[in-house]
Request: fold
Amino acid sequence: MVIIMSPEATQQNISEVVEVIKGVGLDAKIMEGAQQKIIGVIGDKTKMASIPVDAMQGVDHSVSISKSYKLASREFHPQSSIINVSGIEIGGDEPIIMAGPCAVESREQLMEAAEIIKAGGAQFLRGGAYKPRTSPYSFQGLEEEGLKYLAEAREKTGLKIVTEVTTVEAIEKVAAYADMLQIGARNMQNFGLLKEVGKCGKPVLLKRGLAATLDEWLNAAEYIMNEGNPNVVFCERGIRTYETYTRNTLDMSAVAAIKHLSHLPIIVDPSHGTGKWRMVKPMALAAIAAGADGLMMEVHPNPAKALSDGSQSLTPEHYRDVMSGIQKLSKFLKDEKLLSFVED
Amino acid sequence: MVIIMSPEATQQNISEVVEVIKGVGLDAKIMEGAQQKIIGVIGDKTKMASIPVDAMQGVDHSVSISKSYKLASREFHPQSSIINVSGIEIGGDEPIIMAGPCAVESREQLMEAAEIIKAGGAQFLRGGAYKPRTSPYSFQGLEEEGLKYLAEAREKTGLKIVTEVTTVEAIEKVAAYADMLQIGARNMQNFGLLKEVGKCGKPVLLKRGLAATLDEWLNAAEYIMNEGNPNVVFCERGIRTYETYTRNTLDMSAVAAIKHLSHLPIIVDPSHGTGKWRMVKPMALAAIAAGADGLMMEVHPNPAKALSDGSQSLTPEHYRDVMSGIQKLSKFLKDEKLLSFVED
Amino acid sequence: MVIIMSPEATQQNISEVVEVIKGVGLDAKIMEGAQQKIIGVIGDKTKMASIPVDAMQGVDHSVSISKSYKLASREFHPQSSIINVSGIEIGGDEPIIMAGPCAVESREQLMEAAEIIKAGGAQFLRGGAYKPRTSPYSFQGLEEEGLKYLAEAREKTGLKIVTEVTTVEAIEKVAAYADMLQIGARNMQNFGLLKEVGKCGKPVLLKRGLAATLDEWLNAAEYIMNEGNPNVVFCERGIRTYETYTRNTLDMSAVAAIKHLSHLPIIVDPSHGTGKWRMVKPMALAAIAAGADGLMMEVHPNPAKALSDGSQSLTPEHYRDVMSGIQKLSKFLKDEKLLSFVED
Amino acid sequence: MVIIMSPEATQQNISEVVEVIKGVGLDAKIMEGAQQKIIGVIGDKTKMASIPVDAMQGVDHSVSISKSYKLASREFHPQSSIINVSGIEIGGDEPIIMAGPCAVESREQLMEAAEIIKAGGAQFLRGGAYKPRTSPYSFQGLEEEGLKYLAEAREKTGLKIVTEVTTVEAIEKVAAYADMLQIGARNMQNFGLLKEVGKCGKPVLLKRGLAATLDEWLNAAEYIMNEGNPNVVFCERGIRTYETYTRNTLDMSAVAAIKHLSHLPIIVDPSHGTGKWRMVKPMALAAIAAGADGLMMEVHPNPAKALSDGSQSLTPEHYRDVMSGIQKLSKFLKDEKLLSFVED
Reply:
């Protein structure tokens, strides 16, 4: 942390700030110029977390220069992590594809979808049994019934199951049926939920919050890991901006940023990221080229009859086309070794 | 809802869309121009919520033109609501002030703060016992111990208590001590929590989400009200934008917007809204002049020793100065009848 | 500036950075901790502007801690400036009101508007002769003809004229007719235009860019002042955010921020800031309560026939009502001395 | 356009709105439901541009449903356009690469850069002679001297020249030396400049504004095309969001969106889009995979000595590595026909 004193700060002000810093066991260095005095603080940032230096006399403002997360950081764990989910490795050589309908709507719809997903080559079936919806009057999901259909689809196809958990109470139930728990964008800072999925131990797919910074997202992973669960996979799904043509603005650069800042895998959801099925293929290919460890995509046997998010769902034909492209591109990138990250 | 067909849409496409609309019991009107065909849908929007028209053949896009909330809307309840919290009326003639430290830190700190708050003329004591924090390593609150201190401060001063509840499990405990439950910005779309505070029946202070639209905020209130709890008060606390000088961008116009769209009261939190104690007074006065029903402000006996948000906390002296200004301004606005909202 | 070295930076890397800093005549101080090394740079920031330290070996990132503007800053000029525009003082005791139609549409419309504006008590007539419009097919303004009508309206009413200049070529012409030149939001970083209005010497109303930070805005003023023209007045007109209910998000806190950072006056435009005439009155009152030095508002003799921005224009009746409120509120605030800014 | 009447609108209100619509030669259709009345307007949107229906009695709000640009739209010109710049085809089979330093700093620097750029395989040399800078005290470019060096570098290497023009006065000079004129982000809505580069006829590289919507960007192209210059190429360079880790948020989905909405080519600038050289390679590959027609990248012989934007510039080694990746990927995508855009 660097503390910038205001021009009219007195020596007394500076001494008081330094005293507070030393009081929590940190070291302070003063730099004085003709017009400016700044105080550098070196050491464990967490010790400073509870000191409101900005409120002290003579302080203009302070600037944070170190990270507030540790377990999720690449400094702490320089080697990229591979997360094993029921035998499927996320973060390894192959991109992992999670596909399926936005919501589980009926047994028939899900079984039909599962067969299509399996045939196209994805490893995971996605589908919401608990749906967080803006309006209380929108379809809220089939809940446990939906979980049972997901488990049945796994039996039939061998696909692994990833599905969202929205409340602490539902964790046990969802964990009993799913291979991987999804934390949705609206719950990325539902810290109670993060701690409990941390305790539960199941692998977690952590979607980025609607307007979450990378730092907040990494800290959300830290909440889960700090409870003893190291199996976290990030999912970029677009952020909220002023642009209204797309449902969200897919932050493709988050792939490269997370790869640099963290050892955890990251996948991309071009369906929610754009909200338009036409944009799924180009963004899926782009994500793979950017180095993403996989994709999450919405596919519906009949998008025009979907109970939610139909306009961003791929038809079975488009899904097959996208999968074929991803597989070819991914093989090409691996063969050409195009994705080795550049480090000094 | 208005459905805009793409230029190459066929008559067959149009017929299919119309059929789907009629299938859910709504009426469709077709408007055809030389280059453009649009279909208007009239009736209860909730019936359309589950139909993905955007995914149908020939549809370019659709535009929603009605609201997805009802109980919270002024159309449904044209008269402004007054919410009674343990005898204090929010939304009535007097602005209601909620003040206190960001977090309950110790018995001494809270009692000292409560005496200051009471003396300055506020009606509510605020203070977090459960703190949602970005990093798992930051101070997380005293939990039930903090609630007990809040109740003790009420005993001594007569101030009402408003405090945040962050998990479903904690609702019962918080409700046993507090007069009003606060839903924080990070939980504004924690729908499980919203439903449970709806069932619990205690008055709710609903903070706006970090990047929530007005529509999403009103729908969050609808979740609470739909469970039978009509006692919701909005709190504007700044939204996330690209500007970094302030902690958030205080959306003052939300006061006028909510007054127009809803019958529920709205208060403003200039402390979180700006993140700088210097800006609290001008923004507090502005909020009252804009027609806000009250304010929430952070006050700390000694901001420079606060365990969280010290840089945005008022000192006791500044608090007294702000309160004096608010009281004079509020009386003036009432005497001059300057705040009658303009309706055609 | 503070330079944060990456954990694996060598002593050699640090020496090279220090050498570059000293090479431009600045002083560098090294702070070393167990895991972190940072280098503080003290002195005139402008000397560092051209050194890309972030690209040097071993540098993780750098953080700017001082301002890049000087003439516009309160440090440079601690006393608040009063800008005199043809005898009207902006930044003095009285709030200055600029009102009128968005665009000059015809001689009749403008004369009618001018009489209404004058009668209501404003000091300036606004009206665009050159209109920057998103689409090339929208009404672009009457150009010089419009300027002549503005000058004629000044003759008749004594109102001062403020009108937008959008190109360097038009400056001379606009300056010949207007008392004050307006730089619109879309041109806030049209540096060629800023320099030329700086040279021209006429007082300038500098609107905030659509997504401009406070720092960029202050630097835009610096461009004008650096050419020898100290007569700059800021105008907050809303910034672009994700919220679509309002045309822009009016950043009311910019009033308090600019008052703290700069000695120049600031006014607020609630018409563009909200895009809705119903919200103009509450936001106008709020701006005055926040300490704004004036307001710019759209008023049209017949908003429903306006050629641009009719939906945000006040009718003559509403204008009179708003003016009456502003005058009373302003007198009250002055009498009660409620607006003295809090400085330590 | 669809006009939504407020619930209390009278028949008289509706008639007046319909009359105004018919008055400009358009057709209006009324749809009435139990609680809602809406009026559909069919026909040329430009006729409605000047009617402020939102300000009419009884109107709640209106929603625009058609585009305000025409020449730039794919409806108008269904076939993708290829823009020929001095013999180089942008929008054809090969991705076109524009590379070079942010600013022309000296003859030596530019000649060295040009040789590197040429050897790596790019077709265009970029380099700013006129630099728009936030602070008036930052390096502003070598101006005409810089243009001469650019022309000299073209002589030596055969590279085409693209460079920014920031003022109307400089157009003639820049056009005399450059093959393609760049309109920078800060000038995307400098309509005077757009019209003049439209008249000048030289091919234009139109960067997206800092916070420009796709619609505004397309309309900016329309300004240029409407003056008779059809040779416009879009350049996505990141938009402004709340995220501060990257300099901007690169909106990769804009590639797919522009391809759908317009017939004009689009390239991507990952250097400005991210602000970090480490992220250039993954984002460059992603852009090509997304279907971009080319790239603009900053390359500097010695980034650590660059006078601007050094931290986002590639070294010669990294540039060669990125170019090699792009060429292989591009060939692969063409051979596999992976980029055919999905249309119904």
